[in-house]
Write a structure and sequence with these properties.
Layout lengths: L1 H5 L6 H6 L11 H4 L23 H22 L3 H4 L3 E3 L7 E3 H6 L10 H6 L3 E4 L2 E4 L22 H15 L4 E2 L4 E2 L2 E2 L4 E2 L15 E2 L4 E2 L3 E2 L4 E2 L2 E3 L4 E2 L3 E2 L4 E2 L2 E3 L4 E2 L3 E2 L4 E2 L3 E2 L4 E2 L3 E2 L4 E2 L3 E2 L4 E2 L3 E2 L4 E2 L3 E2 L4 E2 L3 E2 L4 E2 L3 E2 L20 E2 L3 E2 L20 E2 L3 E2 L5 H19 L7 H5 L1 H25 L3 H16 L6 H14 L6 H24 L8 H16 L8 H12 L2 H32 L4
């Protein structure tokens, strides 16, 4: 499959046209328009199902066309013509040219080290003039500003073999020695190159590739699967118009992928990064996979955009991992991943629909603190508890300090999003018979478990207020599930009304006051309505009932004998059955008073951090 995909004869004409180009600020040609007819079925390795929001092909076609236009706009602006190369500085170690330009790099014969003039390069087929502008063959664009095309429009053109023979000599001569202090850079200088496919080492994939591809454009699928890259490789500003495959690739040192445009699917499955990695401001416009990859040093995905499904399953982050200000526009997963050092998801933008991030960190282990603050939110951000269903936060989590009102508003929205997410779920098996109710409960159960994970993390951090907040959210999410027994849901609702799940100081006191009045009125109605012979006035009965009800709440002190005296008087005037009923009500009031007193004490303990 790999050979066919990369063979010049293995692609049909329409696919060859799709890689092609727009002139500077000009309209796309017919070749570019055919990009919208791309067959998306060309895949390799496991391809995850598209999310419903991104399943429509029109969405991908528009993104690909935008990627194509922007890529060529940036390339023409950078000016990689032959004269433009003379203005681009290149540091290289040489006796006579300690500092040289990219033009001098391509003038130098990699075999002899001699500088060649334009005539020699033209004779060798390396310089090509198009409409008054000269290009090195490596930098020749497929389309000119006028709309005229070159042979690079056809990925099966025989001229590609000449170009790849030239780049092979450069790659073979590269040593990978880079010294910014001494101005040495012996990597293959493929900056701004317009290439067909992945450049391989002529001696085989067992030899490390030492090259810099900064601002290059790959117009066909690239496959670096199983390759090795030298201690410092750079793909900064590169545009991959087709599939980019780095499966089982080893990066022996630093790897730079800043501001890269991945217009199609990209796979880094089982890749190993031995040095620092930087994907800052890169855009992944299609399905992205980093499954089982290993990052041995720091990795940055700051300001990176994932427009489609992003998978980091079973990935190992051995050092600091930064996803600050990253944007996930569709579904993403870090299931089974391990973060050995601190992980920052500060100011991350989540997808609009909760279904795209529910359970995103299932079975993920955070062995160091997780940073989830948001400097731009002004306390309005969401901690997305449902994303942490099944996660293990072994060193705690850092959240913003927010007021309960703000947090409650956000959680209410998350509950609504969880219920809305169930409408997109497709019933399978037993769920088919259960219907939407079970699907809704499954989403709320994810929210419940996620809140429990965050609650336990806050407990480890001794953040009692945040711990209590997530405990409250956990109970609310459980109460919203229709599979929860009615009795449990009812008691949960009472717990919320009477004490706000242990978070309120005023509600237990207000509830005690209400209980006092309710039971006092009840005792007054019984005593007054059934009094024999009107032996007592209504006022005296009412005051007596208030005192008796209060004595059930405060049984000691000044009210110590009130309860027994009232019962003795009542028993002398009413039947034993009624007396038994009143004794039951009095005992019930005492039990409720003890429970509310306990809730008040519990709230005081949490509020003032009393150990």
């Amino acid at each position: 499959m790999r050979e066919n995909r990369h063979s010049p004869n293995g692609r049909n004409g329409s696919n060859a046209d799709t890689r092609l180009m727009a002139g500077m600020g000009g309209e796309l040609t017919v070749a570019t328009a055919r990009l919208k007819q791309r067959n998306l079925s060309r895949t390799k390795v496991q391809v995850y199902p598209y999310t419903k929001a991104a399943r429509g092909r029109e969405m991908f076609k528009e993104a690909s066309s935008a990627c194509l236009r922007q890529a060529w706009k940036n390339w023409w602006k950078a000016d990689y013509s032959w004269n433009g190369l003379a203005k681009k500085q290149h540091t290289i170690w040489a006796h006579n040219f300690p500092w040289s330009s990219l033009q001098q790099y391509w003038r130098r014969d990699p075999s002899t080290g001699q500088l060649r003039n334009d005539a020699a390069l033209i004779a060798a087929g390396e310089l090509i003039e198009c409409e008054g502008t000269t290009f090195h063959i490596v930098h020749l664009p497929p389309q000119l500003p006028s709309g005229a095309t070159t042979w690079k429009e056809d990925v099966g053109a025989p001229e590609w073999e000449v170009l790849e023979a030239i780049t092979a000599k450069r790659v073979d001569a590269a040593t990978g020695k880079v010294s910014h202090w001494y101005g040495r850079d012996d990597r293959a200088q493929l900056r701004g190159a317009v290439l067909r496919r992945a450049i391989q080492h002529p001696s085989g994939s067992e030899h490390a590739l030492h090259a810099i591809f900064k601002n290059s454009i790959f117009i066909d699928s690239v496959d670096w699967g199983g390759s090795e890259f030298g201690p410092t490789c750079s793909f900064d500003g590169v545009t991959f118009l087709e599939i980019a495959e780095f499966n089982n690739t080893i990066f022996l040192g630093e790897a730079w992928f800043k501001e890269v445009e991945f217009c199609h699917m990209v796979w880094f499955n089982n890749a190993r990064f031995c040095g620092n990695v930087d994907f800052q401001k890169s855009k992944f416009r299609h399905q992205t996979q980093f499954n089982r990859s290993v990052f041995e040093q720091d990795v940055k995905f700051k300001y990176t955009t994932f427009e489609d499904l992003a998978i980091f399953e079973d990935t190992t982050f051995s050092s600091y991992a930064e996803f600050g200000n990253a944007t996930f526009k569709s579904e993403f997963h870090f299931g089974g991943a391990t973060f050995n050092r601190a992980a920052s998801f500060e100011s991350v933008t989540l997808p609009d629909e909760a279904r795209n991030w529910h359970g995103a960190f299932k079975n993920t282990r955070f062995l160091a603190p997780l940073i989830l603050t948001d400097a731009k939110s002004q306390g309005q951000q969401t901690s997305a508890p449902a994303a942490f269903d099944g996660a293990s936060l072994e060193a705690g989590i850092v959240l913003d300090l927010v007021t309960d009102d703000c947090a409650d508003r956000r959680f209410k929205i998350e509950v609504e999003q969880a219920c809305a997410a169930a409408q997109w779920d497709e019933p399978v098996g037993k769920l088919q018979a259960a219907g939407t109710s079970t699907l809704r409960d499954r989403r709320l159960a994810q929210l419940e478990r996620g809140c429990r994970v965050l609650k336990q993390a806050m407990d480890k951090a001794s953040n009692k207020s945040a711990e209590q907040r997530f405990h409250r959210y956990e109970l609310i999410a459980r109460r919203g599930q229709r599979s929860t027994p009615l009795s449990e849901r009812s008691f949960s609702r009472l717990y919320e009304w009477s004490a706000n799940y242990g978070a309120s100081l005023s509600r237990p006191i207000a509830s005690l006051f209400a209980i006092w009045l309710v039971f006092a009125v009840t005792f007054w109605l019984i005593d007054d309505g059934l009094s024999v012979g009107g032996l007592h006035s209504r006022e005296s009965v009412a005051i007596s009932s208030l005192s008796f009800s209060l004595s059930r709440i405060l049984p000691s002190g000044a009210f110590e004998n009130v309860s027994s005296d009232w019962i003795a008087r009542f028993a002398g005037a009413h039947s034993p059955t009624l007396v038994l009923f009143v004794r039951f009500l009095a005992s019930l009031e005492s039990i409720l008073a003890v429970i509310l007193a306990f809730m008040f004490g519990f709230a005081v303990k949490r509020k003032f951090q009393i150990i």
